[in-house]
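This part of the workshop introduces the protein records we will be handling. Backbone structure tokens are a discrete shorthand for how the chain folds in space. Once this layout is familiar, the rest of the handout is easier to follow. The record below serves as our worked example for the rest of this section.
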Amino acid sequence: MAKSLIDILISQNILDLAKSALVRKEAKDKKVPVEEILYQYGVTEEDVAAAKSELTGYPTKFLRGLNVSFEALRDIPEESARHYKMIPLGRNEGYLEIGMLFPDDVSAQEALKFIAARANLPSRIFVITPSDLENVLGEYRSLSGEVTKALGEFEKEYEALGEEVKIRREEPAKIVEEAPVTKMMAVILRHAVEGHASDIHIEPARDKLRVRFRVDGVLHTSLLLPLDVRPAIVTRIKVMTNLKIDETRIPQDGRFHAEIMGRDIDFRVSTFPTAFGEKVAIRILDPEAGVKTLSDLGLEGRNLSLLEENIKRPYGMILITGPTGSGKSTTLYAILQILNQERTNIVSLEDPIEYFVAGVNQSQIRPEIGYDFATGLRHIVRQDPDIIMVGEIRDKETAALAVHDRRGPPPY
């Protein structure tokens, strides 16, 4: 006969026979898991987890208040974590480490197979305690919790204002400096930076305002807010970026910078009119995260050798292509760091300049005044360049100039 959780606790002298009978009966009568009754009889969570470990063969892991990183939380959606009672613990030694409250749950095991396949990593299961499960589930809410608190303050102020609310909703510029709106934006920006996001998307829908972070090229929904806060949030962003507050019909672009986690970070902002209101995309330009080495980007072995060899050639062209968030700009700046030497004149055309590199002559194109990539390239060749970097090849003329100009090895 197979051992049960109660049998193991009896063998370890944690539970006596009399109490074990009462636990079994009460769990059966109430139709709840045995461990719920065990806790009521004074058995600790750690003892139950250790017994489960012996029963299932999976080791235990006790977090004891330690936080799970934002990056780790992305491995399992909050809904799945709550439903299957399992949490991500991080990636270690090539494994996706998962904590499970019920490691013998067949449906949870099936869900884990899918999650591990998506992460392209084998999983390693640990038995956890209910307290650790709840603490990590609370971390999913950390961003939502902070914003929700500010949102509550925002709504309370509106209720207190009564009829004046209608007027102020029509004049969002008057509310952008109020603490709740400012706090909401500060929390969103901080969590995006802490989570190593490259972009923030603030998107209006029919009945909600969705906030998504792009991390490692993939967008993740982080917040769903009431649609009523959209005018205030968008206006706050426009004020920070010095954009036209009353212009909502056409796209606008701008930049602002803020001190987050003790360092100055630039944010590039783009607004875009949609059927449900203005959408805002914010590119995070973190100087510390932006300029990396080629090794930091994951290039190794033959691929690294080929790139290092070719960027040192006196002539030629290197094209870097890929989808949004794939690391094109980061790769370009990593190459510029290598090529940036006293004896070399490097000139770049960018839209926009994402990171300022000392020693490189960086030029911001301005299509609205006729200064586009093609125009810039025609003038750059008169600047005696050794190396030219062009941020984007968008049109036939720029492509032709890039291909035909053989003055140096531009990393386009």
